[in-house]
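2024-03-11 09:14:02 INFO worker-7 job=invfold-0412 stage=load source=structure_tokens
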């Protein structure tokens, strides 16, 4: 018995299968088959609003993808394969294609490195232009699998900073470790201290240091981005694996050891201070005076002084220096590493 497709074309639905290599038109015909298995090209044309010639072309495409099987009850009769099985097979096939593409990319990268060495090429490239630099900055983070090291100081190439926070949160959620040393002056901008606190709550390990010497991003100990000139936003050096990269990594680790922990490495690192207390201490560690902190928080200077006295009482210390030392010990072990975390390469 013939199926009973809709009397006229149904409104097209938003495509959902393009990620599996199925075109929107193929998907539309496939959906019509699912609604009326065994339909003829003429019936499918009525249901989809496509011409019979186009329907036949999409039917052949769906058959090649394994989404349709030829029926035994007549010519040009097809039956849709069960979507859960057929689409799973396509998904697995696409995963295999991606895996092969990654292997090919690794081989091409090796050919590139070998050719550069044969030609006496340098492991250092100069990248110019704000747009190209921003793209490289985000791409370097998005391809990292283990750890990102950052020396952060103004001026900033990438604006708005919200985009960087979004990318970083995505990578943190994927298990990529972030360690950042912030320049003390860089935390003086509106909302900067609050932004670093939010990142710390999601897993970033952050420290602060006066006069960070340069801006730097290192991904997985395999590539570094560093400005050609510290204040320049138009040129950066892209440093591949080399003695220079090893030196930049050593510089970061040296500054990391010298820097002061800014926030707890993760939520609940200690229970003695409220989020408001931690924000005040963060401003204090960033080098702000009581009057500057008061302006930043929108309160009177006496309020800051009173809250600081209460924090010192809670921590059981007598001076602000002791409060800084005390909170540093609360934020992690002596070298600032969270317990149980090993440094990945």
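2024-03-11 09:14:09 INFO worker-7 stage=emit residues=345
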């Amino acid at each position: 018995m013939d199926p009973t497709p809709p009397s006229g074309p149904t409104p097209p639905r938003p495509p959902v299968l393009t990620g599996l290599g199925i075109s929107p038109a193929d998907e539309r015909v496939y959906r019509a088959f699912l609604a009326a298995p065994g339909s003829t090209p003429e019936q499918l044309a009525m249901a989809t609003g496509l011409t019979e010639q186009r329907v036949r072309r999409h039917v052949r495409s769906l058959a090649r993808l394994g989404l349709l099987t030829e029926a035994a009850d007549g010519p040009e009769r097809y039956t849709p394969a069960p979507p859960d099985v057929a689409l799973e097979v396509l998904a697995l096939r696409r995963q295999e294609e991606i895996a092969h593409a990654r292997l090919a990319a690794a081989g091409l990268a090796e050919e590139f490195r070998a050719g550069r060495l044969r030609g006496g090429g340098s492991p250092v490239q100069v990248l110019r232009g704000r747009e190209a630099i921003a793209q490289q900055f985000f791409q370097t983070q998005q391809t990292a699998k283990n750890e990102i090291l950052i020396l952060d100081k103004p001026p900033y190439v990438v604006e708005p900073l919200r985009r960087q926070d979004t990318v970083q949160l995505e990578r943190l959620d994927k298990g990529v470790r972030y360690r950042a040393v912030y320049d003390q002056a860089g935390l003086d901008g509106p909302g900067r201290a609050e932004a670093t606190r939010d990142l710390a709550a999601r897993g970033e390990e952050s420290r602060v240091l006066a006069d960070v010497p340069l801006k730097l991003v290192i991904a997985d100990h395999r590539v570094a981005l560093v400005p050609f000139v510290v204040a320049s936003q138009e040129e950066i050096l892209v440093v591949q694996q080399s003695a220079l990269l090893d030196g930049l990594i050593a510089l970061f680790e040296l500054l990391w050891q010298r820097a002061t922990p800014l926030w707890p490495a993760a939520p609940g690192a200690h229970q003695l201070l409220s989020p408001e207390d931690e924000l005040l201490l963060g401003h204090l560690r960033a080098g702000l005076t009581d009057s500057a902190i008061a302006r930043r928080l929108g309160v009177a200077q006496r309020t800051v002084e009173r809250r600081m006295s209460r924090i010192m009482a809670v921590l059981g210390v007598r001076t602000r220096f002791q409060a800084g030392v005390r909170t540093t010990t609360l934020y992690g072990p002596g070298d600032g590493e969270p317990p149980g975390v090993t440094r990945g390469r």
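2024-03-11 09:14:09 INFO worker-7 stage=report msg="Strands lie at 68-70, 78-80, 124-128, 147-152, 177-183, 205-209, 216-219, 223-227, 235-240, 260-261."
2024-03-11 09:14:10 INFO worker-7 job finished
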